[in-house]
């Protein structure tokens, strides 16, 4: 998954990361052609006025925690939240993740989308296809996988989960992607490492700035379709 896995309280037990990787050929075979359904016209051609980034990325008090401001002036502006022209056959409300370009799109009516910058770890390239958001969680727990605990025994104390909070690598929100009754172990989540956005992080699924994952979380519903491009 990402730095570890985060599992909702209603689940009995998540599949192991190894099991997911073994099942990837079947998943990919069922989802060929996902990338051909999307065409972008002018990623730099904005469909609306430039957002007020000083407000969008200001410090946030959320869930009893203080989140620092994002120093947005220090990042490539293409990764800042913005509305762009985006042509796709997918319905408004669909999330489209482009791991290689480091963008996540929330499809809007009229050939537009809200585009967010993302960071991608190894697990972010390990799965592609169509899924739905089965669960949404605020400040979810983090469960480091066994192989991570083996590399770093200090993480043993989190085997049963690290409570949500600013030090938790899952961040302020988590969106859990499922195919039918199968957990893909693929997550869209926040991060406590803001400088990983726009990069290939050492580990993780799809990570977003805390302010951006909160914004996305408030815009999408459980059951929303997610397309992860190959």
UniProtKB/TrEMBL annotation:
<dbReference type="GO" id="GO:0071972">
    <property type="term" value="F:peptidoglycan L,D-transpeptidase activity"/>
</dbReference>
<keyword id="KW-0328">Glycosyltransferase</keyword>
<keyword id="KW-0808">Transferase</keyword>
<dbReference type="InterPro" id="IPR038063">
    <property type="entry name" value="Transpep_catalytic_dom"/>
</dbReference>
<feature type="domain" description="L,D-TPase catalytic">
    <location>
        <begin position="93"/>
        <end position="229"/>
    </location>
</feature>
<dbReference type="InterPro" id="IPR005490">
    <property type="entry name" value="LD_TPept_cat_dom"/>
</dbReference>
<protein>
    <submittedName>
        <fullName>L,D-transpeptidase</fullName>
    </submittedName>
</protein>
<keyword id="KW-0133">Cell shape</keyword>
<feature type="active site" description="Nucleophile">
    <location>
        <position position="205"/>
    </location>
</feature>
<feature type="active site" description="Proton donor/acceptor">
    <location>
        <position position="189"/>
    </location>
</feature>
<dbReference type="GO" id="GO:0008360">
    <property type="term" value="P:regulation of cell shape"/>
</dbReference>
<dbReference type="GO" id="GO:0005576">
    <property type="term" value="C:extracellular region"/>
</dbReference>
<dbReference type="GO" id="GO:0071555">
    <property type="term" value="P:cell wall organization"/>
</dbReference>
<keyword id="KW-0961">Cell wall biogenesis/degradation</keyword>
<dbReference type="GO" id="GO:0018104">
    <property type="term" value="P:peptidoglycan-protein cross-linking"/>
</dbReference>
<dbReference type="Pfam" id="PF03734">
    <property type="entry name" value="YkuD"/>
</dbReference>
<comment type="similarity">
    <text>Belongs to the YkuD family.</text>
</comment>
<comment type="pathway">
    <text>Cell wall biogenesis; peptidoglycan biosynthesis.</text>
</comment>
<dbReference type="InterPro" id="IPR050979">
    <property type="entry name" value="LD-transpeptidase"/>
</dbReference>
<keyword id="KW-0573">Peptidoglycan synthesis</keyword>
<dbReference type="GO" id="GO:0016757">
    <property type="term" value="F:glycosyltransferase activity"/>
</dbReference>
<keyword id="KW-0378">Hydrolase</keyword>
């Amino acid at each position: 998954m990402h730095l570890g896995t985060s599992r909702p309280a209603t689940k009995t037990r998540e599949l192991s990361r190894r099991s997911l990787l073994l099942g990837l050929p079947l998943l990919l075979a069922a989802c060929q052609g996902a990338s051909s359904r999307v065409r972008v016209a002018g990623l730099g051609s904005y469909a609306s006025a430039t957002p007020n980034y000083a407000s969008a990325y200001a410090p946030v008090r959320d869930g009893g925690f203080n989140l620092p401001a994002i120093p947005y002036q220090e990042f490539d502006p293409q990764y800042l939240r913005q509305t762009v022209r985006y042509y796709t056959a997918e319905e408004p409300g669909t999330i489209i993740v482009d791991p290689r370009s480091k963008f996540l799109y929330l499809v809007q009516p009229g050939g537009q989308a809200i585009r967010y910058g993302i960071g991608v770890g190894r697990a972010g390239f390990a799965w592609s296809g169509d899924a739905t958001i089965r669960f949404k969680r605020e400040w979810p727990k983090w469960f480091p996988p066994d192989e991570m605990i083996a590399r770093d025994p200090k993480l043993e104390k989190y085997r049963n989960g690290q409570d949500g909070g600013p030090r938790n690598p899952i961040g302020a929100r988590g969106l859990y992607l499922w195919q039918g009754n199968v957990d893909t172990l693929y997550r869209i989540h926040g991060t406590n490492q803001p400088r990983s956005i726009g990069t290939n992080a050492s580990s993780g699924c799809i990570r977003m700035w805390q302010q951006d994952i909160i914004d996305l979380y408030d815009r999408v519903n459980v059951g929303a379709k997610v397309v992860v491009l190959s």
